[in-house]
Design brief:
The protein is an all-beta fold and 731 residues long. It folds into 6 domains: 15-124, Sandwich (Immunoglobulin-like), CATH 2.60.40; 127-215, Immunoglobulin-like (Sandwich), CATH 2.60.40.60; 222-328, Calycin beta-barrel core domain (Lipocalin), CATH 2.40.128.20; 339-385 and 397-465, Lipocalin (Beta Barrel); 475-598, Lipocalin; 605-730, Lipocalin. It contains no helices and 52 strands. The strands form 10 sheets. It has an 8-stranded antiparallel beta barrel with strand order 18-19-20-21-22-23-24-25. The protein is globular. The protein starts with 33 loop residues before the first strand and ends with a strand. The model is unreliable at 1-30 (pLDDT under 50).
Length: 731
Amino acid sequence: MKMTKRYLLAAALLSLTLAGGCAKGGNGAGNGIIVTVTDNDVSAAGLGVVINFTATVTGTTNTAVAWSLSGTACTGNPNPCGTIDPNSGVYNAPLTVPSPAKVTITAVSRADSTARGNLGLTIVPVTVAVTPASVSVGQNLVQQFTAVAVPDNVPQTFTWSCTPTGACGNLVQDPNISGLATYTAPAANGNVVVSASSTLPGTPAGVGQAKATVITNRVPAGAYAFQFSGYEGGKPVAVAGTVTISATESVTAGFEDVLINGVLKQLSVSSGSFVQTSTNNNLGMLTLNLGDGSKNIYTAVLTSSGTIRMVESAADGTGRTGSGTMQKSSTSVFNSAAQTFTFGFSGIDPSGNRVGYVGLLPMTPNGGGTGGTITGGLVDSNDNGSATSLCGTPPCAVSGTYTLSATPGVWQMVLNVGANTLDFDFYVSSGTAQTKTGPGPLTLYALSTHTIDPTHPAALSGSMVYQVPMTYNNAAFAGTSVSNLTGANGNVALVLGTTDGTSGGTGGTGGFSGQFDQNNNGNILSVGTFPTTSQSPSPYTYVATNSNIGRYAFQMLGNPNASPVVAPIPFVLYASGANRGFLLDQSSTAVMTGSMDPQAAVAVAGYANTEMPGTYAVATISNSDSGVAPIAQNLLLTSPGGGVFNVTGTQNPGNTAVTGTYNIASVGVGTITLTSPAAGTFVIYGIDAILIPGSQNVAITDFEMMETCAPQAPATTCTTGPATAIAFAQE
């Protein structure tokens, strides 16, 4: 199966820490009685919430305690800080926030009044987040909305509403999960607001809102670019192309390049359609009728922003398996000025070995808007373990040209690398050319347009991403990121890493630390911490190279827990922004390639289960094993309350039900454990989060996932053999 964001935390807790912790009481030299207040991870209390505190007493057989409440604002009748039962420890939070908001819960031993335990607590308003925060809904189609209330100890009970009254459509609350509502759009376009209000008393009451735009069709008219990768008859397949979709969701024209085991085919798209496969707003079927009489049929899942993630359906008769992405083209943004792109390509060489290319292409328009030149570019490659086969010592210098072809939506590019000439078609996908770091940069889909032979070093496909202008030194990469990596023969990995922004190490290097999970053809390696305490100096480093233009050297993976230790692998990264870019391993025959994305900063509290509920479009994005069947899923994550966090949804091919649970740690790494369509455990790494409009809460929007455990009934422990693929989940 994307894994996601997806992953999240509530900003209501961002600045909250335990004021007193679990303190030990006593007279210091007396009876040795110790009282410890059990916090149950409670550092904040929402308005009107009821919390049952407990205490443990050691050093005496009399374990009874007396409970009390104190704080600067805790005077008056009624007490502005709430009340606590002196015998049971049941605390009733107030309905308004006291000033100051911090209070202390105290448990005093009834055997010795000098023995006491304290716990600091902050009173906060109840806030509600509704996701997706913004979404387009097709007329008469169904969209699910989820709500969560924070802090985490707040009951997950809500009252739902929709405005404008009379023109909203139909909103129905789930009878079993209060934080889930099903919205059916009306048969007319318009803007509506879906709201969920906490039923907990408080001033003000927690309210979350989401904006829905009712549109005629789920896939609006316009030009789209798409890319696809997979296998046909065990041979690698890569596709890139463009289509034009009409106001009735019909495909009116298009063109695609296809590489099958390095052999090029170029086909027109004569017609086609996008059809909703059910009333679900996020599911559909894309059909492309090709000029040679064949067709491609894709099962599609759609994100709230309109991105289409798809897997090829067996119904088209090609015998092809794989997955891809289609997005609306931002054609007006490309080539409007000088723009630099970083790229990541993968493919095969003339002998069928895996190759990877990463690099940088400064592109300058020729003034007419129909082409331009490439000067001062760089490229690094790995051909079956060799980093020198393309031009000798890397990085290789790159120059070239690009031209808008006579075929609408198709750009042609020629790159000169040493004695090699590389020909590409590329297609303008979505995004913006921007001058600040952030998600959504302008993206191009590229594919080599020569049939592979001894005169061409590789058949390649991949993406080119606009590089944010900045000084790319070590300090620019200070932060936390998630990297997805795919290598030959089903070798995949996810890495959570923090770069320290320094250059104080040997040779001007900075430190790189974190954790990773690797699935090497079914053999699972989970490293909870790198480097280990015994690794000094740390071999996990990074450093900016080549005049701070965006090329970095990283040391990643390896196995610090092995005996002897397995050293990390050298990688090169070309950055498109801070903690963002394309990765390539420089030495191994696995030829690990992938991308790095910044993980959204969530300050003190970190990620939490209550920030993940929502609807996610999930599809396989990386796969180097022809035996793995790609999948597309429409997942629904919910919080029914009581500490339970559920996963439900639909998986294709097969239109089968998905059920399970999820859990995420504060660092943004967690698990999804499924019971159907088959038992399995997936590690999830959270990436992007957004601030929910009108609140202080954030919500996970993107996460990546990889299978790490496949229990075989009746056994309950993990076995080897889980699918070796990475999936991406996006709200």
